[in-house]
Amino acid sequence: MSDGGAWRGDIKARLYERVRERGFGSLIAFAEARPAVPLYVLADELGNDVAAVQILSGLMYEAEQRKQVTRLVRDVLVRELAERFPNGWPDVLDDATRGEVAMGLGSWFAYTPVTHRARVDRAGDALLANPPPAGWRPLGPDDELLRTLLPDEEA
């Protein structure tokens, strides 16, 4: 991707062609088959000319069409946490792990559409104020704790 290939040509057509080649009818179906896999890994699976932000953009478009944006927002958090904490939520929130949690939550907020940012901000605050049990590792957007923090209420 360092040659800028991800930004050449018809990006949308390339994404959907790659997804169909793998037997999926949508980016959401492709992503759902790989729960808790970081977005950059999904992009790498589709080729060195695909960027994670392109995956996110396509997923957001599909989620908006399906009225499942909140579910996608939870999914993005799952992928962020899996990348930062592959063994689950840290045992102790010391300065280092609190910094990693804050970075993950900050990325999650940045990837969230404006319509959902206030809710994501509150959910992130709740996670920091009342951390989940050590080792908690949500495996998808339907995780019970995540649904409690960010219930399905489409904007």
From TrEMBL:
Superkingdom assignment: Bacteria
Lineage, top ranks: Bacteria, Pseudomonadati, Myxococcota, Myxococcia, Myxococcales
Protein name, per record: NUDIX hydrolase
Gene Ontology terms for molecular function: hydrolase activity
Keyword set, alphabetical order: Hydrolase
